[in-house]
Design brief:
The protein has 412 residues and is mostly helical. The protein has helices at residues 24-34, 37-43, 49-56, 60-88, 91-109, 114-142, 145-159, 161-176, 180-200, 213-224, 227-257, 262-285, 291-312, 319-346, 352-378, 383-406. The protein has one domain: Up-down Bundle (Growth Hormone, Chain: A). The chain contains 16 helices and no strands. Residues 1-11 have low confidence and may be disordered.
Length: 412
């Protein structure tokens, strides 16, 4: 273990429940159940967004902002949550965050004020930041070597289950109930996880680190000196931002422009989640392949499919062509993300919480800024315009990968 500026061993805190060996498998399962939480929060109400706009008497952009505010707060929170969970432990902060998260859902359910919904989405971003960063660090705390590498790669696949399941559920919740039903489901899920976490989990932090701003900034600078790591944060954000463009605009295109129901919009988002999961499985299967060449090939395929999406729209664009090309593009970015995010999380095992926070925080900040900017500028209402958004993200990723090739002095 390489010592860093802020790594100061302290005695185990008295009264803290440690993870017991007999509960290791159960705690691992709970961690995998919590990892998709951020995806559930973003995707479950996507089919309901047009209906939220109608019921709350707000424009599309105002409802899309509820998603962007979550992403921004979730990303920003992780810059500090990583340091806090390294200093004060994972277990108690996870429990407190779950309690606050559950309460925030009930506030959203019983209000019609968009400003209060904005505030609660920010609260959810912060609490989810604590939960997810702690659970990502769990795998680094508990596992080592090839086993750790396996779980970190598997974690990305499990995380991708949320975009598959959530919009499918959300479409039917909107059909049979209303948009508030999505947040009832989130509150119930959070309550179940709180109970399981309390019973089976426990503290896993191996060494408590002193929380000092100067030391934390020094550690961030230490990590960011790795060009492969720093560029990886941008690449991962662009990849997830590509999928979020569909999340922000897809339901409005399918429901308002193509005149399908919220259930169809939910199935469309489900297809995109399956694409991301397929990319994750392909990424895990290629862990032993040369790192940069496989990323560049996937990016090239991404750009090829994007151009095909735009050109095809000249004479043919419907629900099927929209979903087909978007599916292929999402497979490519899911592949890149799985490989690169697993690398970033495992790059600095001596400060797992900090690395998890920086990786996740940067990823979601880049995701939120790029996706909301692209959608805000282009306002996609068709297959072709959605393709232009995908093209912008793919070209930026291509340029960063080219820079990475020139800076590949350090081994990956």
């Amino acid at each position: 273990m390489i010592p860093t500026q802020s790594m100061i061993a302290r005695q185990q805190q008295p009264g803290v429940k440690r993870l017991q060996e007999k509960n290791k498998k159960a705690a691992t399962l709970i961690s995998f159940l919590l990892i998709p939480l951020s995806g559930l929060i973003t995707d479950i109400y996507i089919p309901s967004m047009p209906h939220m706009a109608q019921e709350l008497h707000r424009p599309e952009g105002a409802i899309q902002l509820t998603l962007t505010l979550f992403l921004v707060s979730y990303g920003l929170a992780q810059f500090i949550t990583g340091s806090l969970i390294d200093s004060y432990g994972r277990f108690r902060l996870t429990l407190v965050s779950l309690v606050v998260f559950i309460a925030s859902n009930f506030v959203i359910i019983f209000t019609k004020q968009i400003e209060l919904i904005y505030a609660m989405r920010i609260v959810q971003g912060i609490t989810t930041g604590f939960i997810i960063v702690a659970k990502r660090a769990f795998f680094v705390d508990v596992y080592e070597g090839e086993e750790r590498k396996h779980y970190l790669s598997l974690m990305s696949i499990v995380w991708s289950s949320a975009p598959v399941i959530a919009p499918f559920i959300g479409g039917y919740l909107q059909l049979y109930f209303n948009w508030q039903a999505n947040f009832y489901v989130l509150a119930i899920y959070g309550t179940l996880m709180l109970i399981l976490e309390w019973i089976f989990s426990g503290e896993t932090v191996p060494v408590y680190r002193s929380f000092k701003w100067n030391a934390v900034l020094k550690d961030y600078r230490f990590m960011m000196r790795s060009r492969t790591f720093a560029y990886g944060l941008l690449i991962c954000g662009l990849c997830y931002g590509t999928t979020m463009i569909f999340g922000l605009a897809g339901a409005f295109i399918i429901e308002h422009q193509m005149h399908y129901s919220s259930v169809v919009a939910g199935y469309g988002a489900l297809v995109m989640g399956l694409a991301w999961m397929c990319g994750g499985f392909l990424g895990k299967a290629s862990l032993n392949k040369a790192f940069l060449p496989k990323l560049r090939r996937s990016n090239a395929a991404q750009l090829l499919f994007t151009i095909g999406m735009i050109v095809t729209a000249i004479w043919l664009q419907n629900l099927y062509t929209l979903l087909l090309f978007a599916f292929l593009i999402h497979v490519c970015v899911g592949f890149i993300f799985n490989n690169y995010f697993a690398y970033c999380l495992g790059r600095f095992p001596q400060m797992a919480g900090l690395a998890s926070g920086l990786s996740g925080g940067a990823n979601f900040i880049v995701t939120a800024v790029t996706s909301y900017t692209v959608v805000g500028i282009l306002r996609p209402q068709s297959q072709a315009v959605l393709g232009y958004g995908y093209l912008a993200m793919g070209v930026i990723a291509l340029l960063i990968l080219q820079l990475l090739v020139k800076k590949q002095q350090e081994p990956v």
